Amino acid sequence: MNLMTIALGGAVGAYLRYCFGKWFMSRNIFPAFPLAMVLVNGIGSFGLGMVTAFTRDYHWQIPHAVTIGFFGAFTTFSTFSIEAIQLLREKQYTYAFIYIVLSIFGSIALFVLAYNFL
Q: Is the torsion defined by CA of 49, 52, 55, 58 positive or negative?
């Protein structure tokens, strides 16, 4: 049963990440920069921090469907890696640096913010 709930949470997370990315890219806000993935990873990190903090305060177990399944599939390190390499190959070094810093440190900062201050 645990495996099924993780798979279901993962399916929902992956689907929502896909939908958000498509929706955001259709707005063509900043096409030269993969802002959609920065936002997805930041939102996911913040959300996981909130869920972790909330369940910590109430001594609840966090369901694996939410942590491993949903947030594991909603956020994506593999897409981050591909997009970072694409920026480097295109010699967009400034964008690559900003993308890498925002993705890694921004996600960690948003998790810490949600976990410690909410």
A: negative
Closest CA to 118 of 71, 55, 35: 55
Each residue's pLDDT tens digit, 91-105: 999 999 999 999 999
pLDDT tens digits, one per residue of 9-53: 999 999 999 999 899 888 878 888 999 999 999 999 999 999 999
- As a 3-state breakdown, the chain gives helix, strand, coil percent values, each rounded to 5, of 80, 0, 20
- Do residues 71 and 10 lie in contact, with contact meaning Cβ atoms separated by under 8 Å? no
Task: Quote the CA–CA distance of 11 and 2 in Å, as a whole number.
Answer: 14
Q: What is the pTM of this model?
A: 0.90
List of residues 6+ apart from 76 with CB closer than 8 A: 17, 37, 40, 41
Contacting residues for 6 by C-beta, under 8 A, at least 6 apart? 64, 65, 68, 69
DSSP for 45-87? HHHHHHHHHHHHHTTPPPPHIIIIIIIHHHS-HHHHHHHHHHH
